[in-house]
TrEMBL record:
SMART domains given in the database record: GGDEF (SM00267), REC (SM00448)
UniProt keyword annotations, A-Z: Phosphoprotein
Signal peptide residue numbers: none
Protein name: Diguanylate cyclase (GGDEF) domain protein
Domain Response regulatory as annotated: residue spans: 9-126
CDD domains: GGDEF, HDc, PAS
Organism of origin: Oxalobacter formigenes OXCC13
InterPro entries: CheY-like_superfamily, Cyclic_di-GMP/3'3'-cGAMP_PDE, GGDEF_dom, HD/PDEase_dom, HD_GYP_dom, Nucleotide_cyclase, PAS, PAS-like_dom_sf
NCBIfam families, sorted: GGDEF
Domain GGDEF: 558-691
Gene3D superfamilies: 3.30.70.270, 3.40.50.2300, Hypothetical protein af1432 (1.10.3210.10), PAS domain (3.30.450.20)
HD-GYP domain location: 153-361
Length: 713
């Protein structure tokens, strides 16, 4: 006991209990540990026990009062002169370091850290600070030793009580069985409801999802103090109000989850969590919903929860018999329930009684939210690791929370450890790729992997090598082979973990895979639709303009010919043969123009019966003229009857690049003038632009459109 009392005291300030537990585990064999979960609590402890605390290990990001605010308060109260402070934080920017040192910290340790290095640095800072302390303070501490011992024992007792606090649904095996029983009872009630009342549309698919989501009904109790959760007697009105808040706190927890893929499952979780204490007559909480305003899945889970609470032993009561529980529920002693639900409850009551009487163990399924480990295995792990039960419990809790969040998000989560060269994925990786979720020798495996598209693999590995402590994260889109579906697009988000204590080195990666194939395919389709004429599947006016502007900027010396093509007397076809036949003619013209030019040339429909084409690397006017003549003859063989009856033909206006213009607008205008000239000469012909045509007042409709565009610009 004297050894414990002689230990120096370290105050650990961090809002995450797991972080506090890890640091406490690191120093508990040398120092006595005090803990605070926010800056305000830390200042209260320092005000009370400043003479006992030889070191403050302080996090920066915390609720109520953050680390920098604590340092400012300690400076204002002159506490910083009485106890050294070390910042332990994942914030590794120069700005944060400078601000910390300006506020008086003795050292800054970045996460992740080397435990032995941290222990040595803490010991050095304490030793140096103690040498700074004056003799009067040391003598004063000796005089007050006896009085302080009593306070110190109180702190030890408070600390021990605090360390016994646990997260509600992970506290003991009883709560875990409660979750499985709720899920089982919910499933039985839902199956009966679906048969009795088909109007609720409870399909087997929905029953499975709702049963799984029922496990989240009391997740908010993780925020309720243990002294209320485990109180053996009746709660006071104030305590009951705190207890009632677990519905809202659970929803806040669920709402903190982003980019959830399965929105329907998330909705079930949310509505069950929020409304499982509502009652049919409106006398429930938190929203006092009434009747069918309460989602049916929340009503079912509510009844399952009440039945299990009555038939199970709790800290405040013994278990009631099945008969008494049914009588209390039907008698309204636990609130008013949906009459239809009660009718179903009566029908399935024998099944529930049989399960209860035989003490049937509900088997785990793939959607169980709790994983149970035999006590012997837990003890063996604890002895092997040397960790306290508190730290093990918190680590298991964090792992379970991490698993639940990743399952809810619908994403594939992975982590890689550089030392062991092992890559591990969440279970959804196996569901999608049918491959092991644990990959040893990961470096070599990825370099020769057939899962990642060969064109993307080297880019992915290169991006990883470019990550630094200052820029530790990146997002990459790559293709991955999905069985029976081929390569699909995924977005990979990666965050590198760095050890900056000694030599800067990457110790691992955390990340997730998100399937974006459908989104990317839709985006490509929309992009294509935005740039394509839907009737002819040629480039539209917007796309033609963009492509030619880009071409002219990149190839200023390349010669070419711009064709403005118009169908003569096309209106007569629409008026006499109908627009559907007119559309057929337009599709025919489009395909013929495309067939008569090269694949490197650019062809598009400007609108109506007008087309454009740009023949690249065409410097010979004779060759250009022959191509124009071919286009003018498009109707000669296939639609000769149209020529005879409606005098249908094609006319072409030609401007040459760069002779007749160096921009899209100039070539368009000049080809338009040449087209007008060709039509004036009797149609069914072509004309090259020359400067004598520049004074023409005639403009086609689309020429006016281009002029309007120029004015807007």
């Amino acid at each position: 006991m004297n050894v414990l009392m002689d230990k120096q005291t370290i105050l650990i300030v961090d809002d995450v209990e797991l972080n506090r537990a890890i640091l406490a585990e690191l120093f508990s064999d040398i120092y006595h540990i005090l803990e605070a979960e926010n800056g305000r609590e830390a200042l209260d402890i320092l005000e009370k026990d400043i003479d006992q605390v030889v070191m403050v290990l302080l996090d920066i990001v915390m609720p109520v009062m953050d680390g920098f605010e604590v340092l400012q308060e300690m400076t204002d109260r002159k506490l910083i002169e009485q106890v050294p402070v070390i910042l332990i934080t994942s914030e590794n920017s120069d700005r944060a370091a400078l601000q910390g040192y300006q506020l008086g910290v003795s050292d800054i340790i970045n996460k992740p850290f080397n435990p032995e290095v941290v222990k040595r640095r803490v010991a050095n800072v304490i030793e140096l600070f103690m040498h700074k302390s004056n003799l009067e303070k040391l003598v004063g501490k000796q005089i007050e030793t006896l009085e302080k011992q009593a306070n110190k024992l109180n702190q030890v007792n408070n600390f021990l009580i605090e360390t016994l606090s646990t997260a509600v649904e992970f506290r003991n095996c009883e709560s875990g069985q409660h979750i499985k029983r709720i899920r089982h009872t919910t499933q039985i009630l839902l199956e009966a409801m679906s048969k009795e009342y088909p109007e609720y549309a409870l399909s087997p698919y929905h029953i499975e999802k709702i049963s799984s989501a029922s496990a989240m009904h009391d997740i908010g109790k993780i925020a309720i103090p243990d002294y209320i959760l485990n109180k053996p007697g009746k709660l006071t009105s104030e305590e009951f109000e705190i207890m009632k808040a677990h519905c809202i706190r659970g929803c806040e927890f669920l709402q903190s989850i982003h980019y959830a893929q399965d929105e329907e499952y998330f909705r079930f979780c949310y509505e069950i969590c929020r409304h499982h204490h509502e009652r049919w007559d409106g006398n429930g909480y938190p929203d006092r919903l009434k009747g069918d305003n309460i989602p049916i899945w929340a009503q079912v889970v509510s009844l399952a929860d009440v039945y299990d609470a009555l038939t199970s032993k709790r800290v405040y009561k013994n278990a009631y018999s099945h008969e008494k529980a049914v009588k209390m529920i039907l008698g309204g002693e636990c609130g008013v329930f949906n009459p239809k639900l009660l009718k179903v409850f009566i029908k399935v009551a024998p099944v529930l009684e049989r399960d209860l009487a035989s003490n049937e163990e509900i088997a785990d399924t793939e959607f169980s939210v709790c994983s149970f480990v035999p006590a012997q295995e837990v003890q063996a792990k604890q002895e092997e690791s040397g960790l306290s039960s508190r730290t093990l419990r918190l680590l298991e809790l964090e792992r379970e929370k991490y698993r639940i969040l990743s399952e809810l998000s619908g994403d594939i989560v992975f982590n890689y450890d550089t030392k062991s060269d092992v890559l591990e994925f969440s279970e959804k990786y196996y569901d999608l790729f049918h491959r092991d979720i644990r990959i040893p020798d990961a470096r070599d495996t990825i370099e020769r992997s057939e899962v990642i598209h060969p064109d993307d693999r080297s880019l992915f590995l290169k991006r990883l090598t470019e990550l630094t402590p200052k820029f530790p994260s990146c997002r990459i889109e790559l293709r991955m082979m999905v069985p029976d579906q081929g390569f699909q697009w995924f977005e990979v988000s990666v965050n590198a973990l760095w050890n900056t204590e000694t030599n800067v080195e990457c110790v691992g990666y955390l990340g997730k895979l998100v399937n974006i194939h459908e989104r990317k395919t839709e985006a490509n389709l929309l992009r294509k639709q935005a740039n394509m004429d839907s009737l002819t599947e040629l480039d539209n006016r917007k796309r033609i303009r963009e492509r030619l502007i880009s071409l002219f900027e990149e190839n200023k010396k390349e010669e070419g010919a711009f064709f403005f093509i118009d169908i003569d007397n096309f209106k007569a076809i629409n008026d006499n043969l109908g627009h559907m036949f007119g559309d057929e003619i337009l599709r025919y013209i489009a395909s013929e123009i495309k067939r008569k030019v090269r694949s490197t040339d650019i062809v598009g429909r400007i609108g109506g019966d007008e087309f454009v084409a740009f023949l690249r690397n065409s410097s010979s006017e004779k060759a250009v003229a022959e191509k124009a003549r071919d286009i003018c003859d498009l109707f000669r063989n296939t639609y000769k009857e149209l020529i005879d009856k409606y005098n249908v033909s094609c006319s072409v206006g030609i401007s040459l690049f760069p002779r007749d213009g160096e921009t899209y607008e100039e070539l368009f205008h000049n080809a338009d003038r040449a087209l007008y000239y060709a039509k004036e000469r009797g149609k069914n012909g072509y004309a090259f632009y020359n400067e004598t045509m520049g004074n023409s007042d005639f403009k086609t409709v689309l020429t006016n459109v281009v002029d309007s565009y120029q004015l807007v610009k």
